Amino acid sequence: MYTAFFLVGSTATGKSAVAHYLALTEDYDILSADSMSVYRGMDIGTDKPPQDWRRNVRYDGIDLVDPDQPFSVADYCRAAGVVFRRARAGGRRVIVVGGTGLYLNCLIYGLAPRPPADQNLRKRADEILLCGGVAALQNYVKGIAPDVYAVLSDTRNPRRLVRALEIQSAGARPTVWPKNAPRIPGLQLERGRLWEKIENRASAMFDAGLLEETRRLADGGLAQAKNTDPRPLILIMKINGKMKPDGQKLVYRLHDLPPNQRPRELLERFGVAAVQDEVLLAIILRSGISGANVLELARKLLQDYGSLTEMAAASERDLRRPGIGPVKAQILKAALELGRRLSEETITATPYIRTPANAAALLRPRAQGLKHETFWVLLLNSKNRLQGKPLDISRGLLDASLVHPREVFRSAIREASAAVILAHNHPSGDPSPSPEDLRITRQLVDAGRLLSIRVLDHII
Questions:
Q1: pLDDT tens profile 364-397
Q2: pLDDT band at 17 (very low <50, low <70, confident <90, very high)
Q3: Phi and psi for 252 in degrees, rounded to 5?
Q4: pLDDT at 291
Q5: Number of H helices and number of E strands within the chain?
Q6: Got the DSSP string for 432-443?
Q7: Distances (CA, A) of 298 to 21, 294, 325
Q8: C-beta separation of 19 from 7 below 8 A
Q9: Cα–Cα distance, 79 to 65 (Å, whole number)
Q10: pLDDT tens-digit profile of 154-170?
Q11: Which of 32, 46, 133, 455 is 20–30 Å from 300 (CA)?
C-alpha cells in the first residue's frame, strides 16, 4: 500500500504550477498522470514541465515510450508502482498531478480486468464518430451496450465509448467505481478566464515551436498512425505547406482534406440522416471565408446559437456575418423555415396520440427555444386520433383568466372531440408544475366532465 497527495483539474487551471510549488517548498517528488506526457518528443504540444523545473524537482511518468509505441493503463500502473516503491524506500513523498481519469482511477482503486482491443469495433466506431460525432456514437453504444453505457463516468469521451463496445463484445462486466471515493483536491477556474488561459497557452505553444515539433513527428512516421480522426492530418498538412497562413491564423482549404472527409462526400457516403448538423449547414453555405473553410464557418454558427432551434428563431439580418451576406442569410433562413414547416407536416402525418410521450414529441419542436409560456390544446377523437394541429390558446405568463374553459373547449365542442390533452412549456426548463398549473388543471378537468370531454393529461 502506497500513499500520495493528488492534485487534479482541467487543462490550464494551473495544477502543474501549484504542484511544482508544493514540491519545491514541501520536498515532494511529482508523478504525472497525463496520458500524453508519457510520449517522448511530444514536449510542446503536451505542455510538459520545462527543463529548469525538472532540475529542481524529480518528475516521473514523463517520456516513458516513443510516440509510435502502444502504452496502456496497465503499463502506466506498472511504471507508477516503480515510482512509489522507490519513494518509500528513500523516505520520499509523492504528488500525483494530472487529469487523465483512467490513470488516476487505477492508482486509487487498482486496475480492473479489461478485454483486449477489438480493431473491427474500433474501425466501426471511428466511422460513426467521423460522420455523426459523439452523439451518434453515444446512440450506437446505448443501443448495443446499454448496461455498460449506464455506468460510464464520461459518456462524451469517445475512447470510453469504444471500450464500452469492447466490454460488451467480450462478455465482460463493466467496472463500477466505489461510491465512497476519497476526496481529491482539484483546481477550478471561471469558464471565461479558463478559455482565455487556454487560448494564451495555445498561442505560446505555436511561438515555442509546436509546428516544428509536429513536423518532426510527422517525418518520423507518426502521420501514418492508423486513426481516422482528421485533426492530426490537418495539422500535418499545415506543416507540410499545403495550407497557407492568413496573418496570425493558420487556415486550411476544404479541398486539402481527404475526399472522404468533405461535406458532400460525407453526405453521399453515409446519407443525410447520419451526418452532423455542421456538415448539412456547410452544404447549404457552400463556401467559407478568408481564415476559415465552410466547415469551420458552419461549426462557428452552431456554436454561436447553441442549437438549430435558436438559429431558426433568428432573423435573416441577425444571421448575417463575415462569410454570410444577405443572399446566404436568405438561403439559410429559407432552409430553416422549410425544416420548421416539415415538422408541422409531420405532426399531421402521425395523428395518433397513445402516450404522453407521443404528445410531448409532437410539441417539442414548437416549445424548444421559446422564451415565453405558451398553452396548447390537442384535440382527439374517440380513437385518440389527433384532430388538426395543436391549438395555441395563450402566450405569456400562464393565468387562469387567459386559459379559460371556453377558450380551451370551444374548438373541442365544434369538432365533437372525445378528449383533449393540455400542454404548456416552462421557458426555465424546470418541468415541475406550479400551484397555478395545478389549479388550472383541476378547473379544466371539472369543466371537461360537464361537457363529457375527457382531459387525458396536462404535459409540461
A1: 777 776 777 888 899 988 888 888 888 888 766 5
A2: very high
A3: -140, 150
A4: 63
A5: 19, 11
A6: PPPHHHHHHHHH
A7: 43, 6, 14
A8: yes
A9: 11
A10: 777 787 888 888 887 77
A11: 46
**Which residues lie closer than 8 Å to 228 by C-beta, 6 or more apart?**
126, 127, 129, 130
pLDDT at residue number 239? 44
Query: Which cell goes with 213?
Result: 515539433
* Location of C-alpha cell 416549445: 367
| DSSP designation for 386 | B
> Quick check: 49 pLDDT over 90?
yes
Q: Do residues 165 and 141 make contact, with C-beta atoms less than 8 angstroms apart?
A: yes
CA 301 to CA 321: how far, in whole Å? 10
CA–CA distance, 268 with 299 (Å, rounded to integer): 20
Q: In what helix (H) or strand (E) does residue 170 lie, and over which residues does it extend?
A: helix 158-170
Share of the chain above pLDDT 70, in %: 81
**Angstrom distance (rounded) from CA 106 to CA 83:** 14
Q: What is the DSSP string of 22-39?
A: HHHHHTEEEEE--SSTTB
**DSSP β-ladder status, 374-380 and 93-97:** unpaired
- Compute the distance between CA of residue 378 and CA of residue 456 in angstroms, rounded to an integer: 10
Q: What is the band of 287 on the pLDDT scale with cuts at 50, 70, 90?
A: confident
Residue located via cell numbers 463516468 = 153
Q: What is the DSSP letter of 235?
A: H
CA distance 150 to 88: 39
Please name the residue that has the C-alpha cell 365542442. Answer: 413
Residue 229: pLDDT above 50?
A: no
Label residues 16-30 b or e (16+ Cβ within 10 Å = b).
Answer: bebbbebbeeeebbb
Query: Cα(368)–Cα(427) distance, rounded to whole angstroms?
Result: 9
Q: Positive or negative CA dihedral for 311, 317, 318, 320?
A: positive
Contacts of 124 (CB under 8 A, 6+ apart): none
